[in-house]
Amino acid sequence: MAPFSRPLSPHLSIYRFTLTMTMSIVHRATGIALYGGTLLLVLWLVGAAIGGGFFEFVTWLFGMWLGQLVLFGYTWVLFHHMFGGIRHFVWDTAKAMDPAGRELAVRIQLGASILVTLIVWAIFVWFK
Question: Residue 15 and residue 17: Cα distance in Å, rounded?
Fold first, then answer.
C-alpha cells in the first residue's frame, strides 16, 4: 500500500518571517502588558486616595530606578499599542495593504512609538 500524498498546510518553514508578523505578535503582547500597567495606575490612584504612608510608599516605588524603568516601558507599550491600533484602522480602510505599504506602516508605528515615548519622557524629566 503506497503512502497517501495529501497537501500540507502552510507553515513557518514556508513563510519568511517578516517585520509585519513580528509587530502583530508584539501588538498582542503590548495589549496584555497594558493590563499590568493599568494595575500600576490603579495602585497609584488608590495610594493618592488613601494618602499618608501608603501614598509615600507608592511614590517611592515609582521614583526608584526600577520603578522608572517599568513606567518607561509602560509608556512605550501604551504608545506602541495605540499606533498599532491606528495602523489596523488604516488597514480597515483597505489602504497600505500591499507588501511595501504594510512594511512602511509597521516601520512608522515602531518609529513613532519610540519617538513619542522619548518626547514624553524628555518633557517629564525637563519639568521634574
Answer: 6
